[in-house]
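Feature request, filed as a ticket because there's no other form

It would be nice if the structure record came with a short human-readable summary line next to the C-alpha cells. Right now we just get the raw output. Example of a typical job, pasted below so the devs can see what we mean:
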Amino acid sequence: MSAAAGGGAVLTALRTATAEDHQLLDGSLPFMREPYSREDYVRTLAAFYGFVSAWEDEVLPRAKRAGLDLAAQAPRLHADLVAVGADPAKVERVSSLPVLDADAAVYGSAYVLVGSRLGARVIGPWLMQHFGIDADTGCSYFGGEPEATGPAWRYFRERLEANVGQENAARAADAAHDTFVQFHTWLATQGVAQPREASNSRQAAIAS
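Raw output as currently delivered:
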C-alpha cells in the first residue's frame, strides 16, 4: 500500500520520513497470503470502513478548504460491505484521529490515504481472482476504477507541491507519521493487521 516513486521536494521529504511506517504497515497486512478466507475479507472491509469513513468525514472538508479536492472512498467500502452481506451501520468507527492543526498537516495525513490507493492496483486483482468477485459484487474499494488511481495520485502530488512549501514539509511529515501509526494501530485492534511492534520485529528478523 505504499506510495509510488517520483515527485517533488515535499513529496520526497514525506516519503523519506515515513519509509519505515510504509514498510511496517505493508508487512502487517494479510493480502495476497494464504490462508485468507471470506470472513477475513469481510473483517478487513469493516476495519477499513471504520477508519476511512471517520477520517473522510473529518478531513475531506478541511482538505477542500486547503485546495485539495479529494473523492470520498468510504462509499465504496460501504457498498462492498453490503455486497458481502455485512451491515455498515454496525461497523465500529475509529474515535481517535490525528490532530491536524495546519494545512500542511492535512496534506501530510492525506498522503497516507491517497497513497494507499496505489497498492489497490495490485491487491484488487488478487482479491477478485481469489474470491471470484468484481467491483460490483464486493471489490469496488480495492478493485474499482484502477485507471483513475494514477491521475488521482498525480493530482495530489501537484497540489502538495503547490500548497505545502519546503518550510512546512516537516509538519506534513509529522502528520503523515501520526496517520500511519493510528491507521496501523486501528487495523491491528480490529484483528486485520499485525501490531506495529510485531511487524517491526518481523522486519528486523528478515533484515538480519
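Something like this underneath would help us a lot:
Confidence is low (pLDDT under 50) at residues 201-208.
The longest helix spans residues 103-131.
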